[in-house]
Amino acid sequence: MVSYKELGLVNTREMFAKAVAGGYAIPAFNFNNMEQLQAIIKAAATKRSPVILQVSKGARSYANQTLLRYMAQGAVEYAKELGWENPQIVLHLDHGDTFETCKSCVDMGFSSVMIDGSALPYEENIAVTKKVVEYAHQFDVTVEAELGVLAGVEDEVSAEESHYTRPEEVIDFTSKTGCDSLAISIGTSHGAYKFKPEQCTRDPKTGILIPPPLAFDVLAEIEKKLPGFPIVLHGSSSVPQEYVKIINENGGKLPDAVGIPEEQLRKAAKSAVCKINIDSDSRLAMTAMVRKVFNEKPGEFDPRKYLGPARDEMQKLYEHKIVNVLGSDGKA
Ligand code: G3H
Ligand code: 13P
Ligand code: ZN
How far are the Cα atoms of 153, 214, 237, 259 from residue 199, in angstroms, in the given order? Predict the structure, then answer.
């Protein structure tokens, strides 16, 4: 049993309370490898932003859960080396699917876990979430739960259809489970194809798809039922069209990739939404740079020569999100 406190990590409790009161959101960035982690920490340290490092089931099977945990421990020391005196870093399990997975992360030093029972019948979601909360709280580990279903397909997270969170359930759910934050469904979804072209309108000049707005009315109803309660948005990548263009111009094929417009996320960050999950945008930044180097310098075979530019671009992206979308700069 390792306590995250010994590793210099923090849980989300105080971070979320400050974010809700201050009208900003904490970035939750997924990581699977060293370059992503370096870029996240450099961006957070440079901008003095609290940050959540997320480990998904896919990341755990790709990179190994133990190795990722040690990397997060190293990240705290790296942040200090970069001059960040008191780093506010959370190590979070993203989309934990069973009690056993959550327990194993709590036991090895994660400071926050998500139990995603959103695909289960309501009462079963309550039962498993409550069990995780009872275990995690013994060690002061915070717990994110989910109500409502996000559409989208990724390696390990998939659902055919989304349905919005039902505001009439949120008081019952949070009081019965004791969860510390609640992920809701208001029209975001995972991956780089968040809307079908027929759900969007098309800019006549550029041909770029313009997606429908998020359900801010549902968010407002939830906030009314749970004043000040920390709300989480998954599936919040914006799918920057400049990266899609670079990818497509350098041998890639991402037709009609579309995300959540940044102004909608800015609006959400000012509300009780205090954690915004971003993974796909970092994948796009990395892929764009790697494809560009491969295309422009076919003789290059030193991984540092293509992963280096990818890392720099991801740092730029993370800093942009922190400053221009979430408003979490200068908060740590
Ligand atoms: O919520 C999904 C995250 O983007 C993680 O996806 O399971 O492919 O690592 P992944
Ligand atoms: P995106 O696919 O929009 O980046 O969402 C990531 C996410 O929600 C991780 O849990
Ligand atoms: Zn998610």
Answer: 17, 12, 18, 12
Per-residue pLDDT of the chain (332 residues; tens, 9 = 90+): 999 999 999 999 999 999 999 999 999 999 999 999 999 999 999 999 999 999 999 999 999 999 999 999 999 999 999 999 999 999 999 999 999 999 999 999 999 999 999 999 999 999 999 999 999 999 999 999 999 998 764 445 555 566 899 999 999 999 999 999 999 999 999 999 999 888 899 988 888 889 999 999 999 999 999 999 999 999 999 999 999 999 999 999 999 999 999 999 999 999 999 999 999 999 999 999 999 999 999 999 999 999 999 999 999 999 999 999 999 999 99
- 94 in catalytic set: yes
Phi and psi at 46, nearest 5°, equal -60, -40
172 CA → ligand 2 middle, Å: 26
What sign results for the dihedral spanned by CA atoms 275, 279, 280, 281?
A: positive
Pocket of ligand 2 (CB under 6 A): 30, 94-95, 190-191, 234-237, 277-280
| Ligand 3 centroid to residue 299 C-alpha, Å | 38
The two beta strands, 231-233 and 209-210, are unpaired
Residue carrying structure tokens 């609006």: 267
Contacts of 296 (CB under 8 A, 6+ apart): none
Q: How far is the CA of 165 from the centre of ligand 3 (A)?
A: 15
Which residue, among 180, 156, 177, has the nearest Cα to 228 in the 3D structure?
Answer: 180
SS3 state at 253? coil
CB 11 within 8 A of CB 292: no
pTM score of the predicted model? 0.96
- Exposure string for 142-166, b = 16+ CB within 10 A, e = fewer: bbbbbbbbbbbebebbebeebebbb
